[in-house]
Amino acid sequence: MTSLAEVAEVGPILPYSLLVGHQELRTALEIAYVNEAVGGVLATGQRGTAKTTTVRAFTMMTVGELPVTLPIGATDDRVLGGWQIKKLMQGAAEPEDGLLVEAARSAARMLYVDEINLLDDYLVNIILDVVSTGILSVQREGRVQRPQRVDFTLVGTMNPDEGGLRPQLLDRFGLVATVQPEEDAAQRQRVVETVLRFEAERDDPDSEFLAEARRRDAERKRALDAARERLGAVRYGPGTAAACARLAAAFRLVGHRGDLVLGRASRALAAIDGEPEVTERHVRRVARMVLVHRRAPGDSGTLPEWTAEDDARVAEQLPHSGAE
């Protein structure tokens, strides 16, 4: 396991416990960590709202390293794997793994794509195929590789002002978290104070501020790892399946992927809460993240705003879930 000292040497990554706001994105990442079957996480919000910072802080907290990142403009060789250039120049053909394999073998088991809505369509098709099948098969000029199992959680961020995401890829994300800029002056002040203090003390080995933040990070990691361990013991309550089905029907979801994600995400949330059984309350708390991108099948990939009417529809279908 990576020590706190080793984590500190990676670079100036704001500790997870120092993040201000972004509760929906943090909850989505934690759910996907506790139950990988939930699927990927998409964070959507305007530029400068710390989406990437949140993802990086989360992976640093949970596994002590940054996620494998697929950059915009990545080549086929970099994504799928190719040949080691130095070896080729020496007359030896030695294969080199691509980012998809690296992500599956990484501690985080995560592939992170910033500005995923700007990704080349060809790479989107590759990711769609691998995410849906869990199998990577490379058959290209000069290289044929046996199919191999490649399992990872896909995490993406996007600015909706720069265009939508292909519906086929959008549907592959289990959860979508909307990241809003802080409008409250007191919250904005907290953001500024936190970041400036972090920048001032990040190289100070005696900083009590950072030591306390890392202690809280370690505590949160232990809690999430414990939730992972007890996930299998969490029972679905007698009304869970019916609640998921009612919501899916009320929002006119196509197919059954949304229904299943509602159940899986609710179970992970119950495990995080330390509760032995999934209830309607857990289903209600994950409803927006599961349904927000599944309400308008066949559209251009844009995300209609979640409204008070949507909240009312959820409450109507889950009358025993209590207040938010």
Can you give keywords for this protein?
single chain; 324 residues; alpha/beta; Rossmann fold; Helicase, Ruva Protein, domain 3; five-stranded parallel beta sheet; two-stranded antiparallel sheet; globular
Summarize the SSE layout with pairings.
Elements (H helix, E strand, L loop, with lengths): L3 H7 L12 H12 L5 E5 L6 H13 L4 E2 L6 H5 E3 L1 H5 L5 E3 L1 H7 L4 E4 L7 H13 L1 E2 L2 E2 L2 E2 L3 E2 L3 E6 L8 H4 L2 E6 L6 H17 L6 H23 L4 E2 L3 H11 L6 H17 L3 E2 L1 H12 L16 H10 L7
Parallel strand pairs: 1-10, 1-11, 2-5, 5-10, 12-13
Antiparallel strand pairs: 3-4, 6-9, 7-8
Helix pairs in contact: 2-3, 2-12, 10-12, 11-12, 11-13, 12-13
Organism: Streptomyces litchfieldiae
InterPro entries: ATPase_dyneun-rel_AAA (IPR011704), ChlI/MoxR_AAA_lid (IPR041628), Mg-chelatase_DI-like (IPR052989), P-loop_NTPase (IPR027417)
Protein name: AAA family ATPase
